Amino acid sequence: MAGRRRPANGGQYFDCDNPCTGEVWARVARGTAADVDEAVAAAREALSTWNGLKPSERGKLMLKMAELIDTHAPALAASEVRDNGKLYAEMLPQMRSAADWFRYYAGLADKLEGAVIPTGRPDMLTFTRLEPLGVVALITPWNSPLLLLAHKLPTALAAGNTVVIKPSEFTSASTLEFAELFAQAGFPHGVVNVVTGFGSEAGAALVAHPDVAKVAFTGSEEGGRRINQGAAADFKHVALELGGKSPNIVFEDAQIDAAVVGAIAGIFAASGQTCIAGSRLLLQRSIHDGFVGQLVDLAGQARIGDPMLPETHVGPIATPPQYAKVLEYIAIAKEEGARCVLGGGPYAGSGTSGGRFVLPTIFTGVDNRMRIAREEVFGPVLAIIPFDSEEEAFQIANDTPFGLAAGVWTSDMARALRASERLQAGTVWINTYRTGGCSTPFGGYKHSGLGREGGVEAIKEWVQTKTVWLCG
Ligand code: NAD
């Protein structure tokens, strides 16, 4: 915090374990409301220094930071793997992507322009200034800690805000290592601060803090509701990136082999622990049985094990509560009458002792009213729902409280365009899945969130507009 590491005010710590082995590998300071007060004060003090820099100077520091992220990417990725068990082969590109987000918004730091507005008053000059919000809070989850932080942090900094970050209690290490790079890059102390700790303590204190102007949160629907309610007390700005139950729709005219690979990557990448997981696979009935056969064959070949090894396809489940939740949903799906055609329980093969592994699991015969089709599992569990017509596919796809993403596989471009209009989701992928980047807007419809990250427009979410009437 403010350029140095220090223990929490309460002097307490909590343990983080490695999901692959169950061994505790890190002790993390348990931040309190007093730590949040100090961090917010440091960020507040740094505001004038940060804004005193020319915007292009801020951009230069952010470019330097991008370089440092690239240099430290292997170490940062390894820390994330030890904390959340995702594949190193996935986390390393995520670090590269985080660096790209810094480069992209570094380039926008000196392009935030107000406007001169015609008012029909020749005696007046009327113009707008885009001013930073102030101190902003960034609260992140455990599934992709640094990449999801990078969806917010460079945008906030480019717009002139200073920040306090509260990473997930399950994955603090990479954020702490990352925060130290800001000093190396030459950022003034206090521009970027981190308080580790629990959501209900440090997180809630940050949301309630009167000097915090905006809370940007990525996490669960329930967490988002609490944040939104907490922030409403004093009308803070809020951005929420929440959960999903994304439909991945395969029509009979699709290129089937590509769709099978897309369906598997959609749900089993990161062991299903992604907000955009294509967790509901909607299959046109005419291709249903053949498609399921191919899917089960391919997914059944997945190598499960140590996420650091390049040959591993499926790693462990990140946290103990998440592991219990995934197994509980598998049991619920069986009770609801869905048919388990692959997996369906924990995995305990060689090299996984002590770890939290779940078999890639596929259910057929799912009805969209079942809990397995309505609630976010956040694990390697696929629910397959048959449909007959295009209209029925769109209706089932939209019949969900969520609206983060949707996939469509078809060779009919007119149908693809209809789908892009009809599907209620912040992102629609056609003949692809899980693509994205810093230059494209990302966010949710309905219960999947509020606001957008990425792209040129997102920077406007980090400023407030002042209108000036100047009478000569
Ligand atoms: P979570 O809601 O449990 O926690 C997220 C963060 O919020 C953590 O840092 C936690 O400590 C903090 N928190 C919890 N309660 C809080 C409170 N009352 N006040 C302040 N902070 C609080 O989520 P999680 O389990 O870490 O992450 C998984 C969820 O995140 C899934 O639902 C997933 O879909 C979602 N997610 C969404 C996106 C997206 O971009 N839409 C991306 C990744 C993950």
List the keywords.
single chain, 472 residues, alpha/beta, seven-stranded mixed sheet, six-stranded mixed sheet, 14 helices, 20% strand, binds nicotinamide-adenine-dinucleotide
The global form is globular
Give the total of beta strands.
Answer: 19
Overall residue-averaged pLDDT value: 97
The end-to-end span amounts to: 46 Å
What share of residues is helical?
A: 25-40%
Oligomer: single chain
Sequence stretches where pLDDT stays below 50 over 5 or more residues: none
Strand order of the largest sheet: 11-12-13-10-9-15-16
How many helices? The count is 14
User: Biggest sheet, in brief?
Assistant: 7 strands, mixed
Chemical compounds bound to the protein: nicotinamide-adenine-dinucleotide
Domain Aldehyde dehydrogenase: 12-468
InterPro entries: Ald_DH/histidinol_DH (IPR016161), Ald_DH_C (IPR016163), Ald_DH_CS_CYS (IPR016160), Ald_DH_CS_GLU (IPR029510), Ald_DH_N (IPR016162), Aldehyde_DH_dom (IPR015590)
Family: Belongs to the aldehyde dehydrogenase family.
Keywords: Oxidoreductase
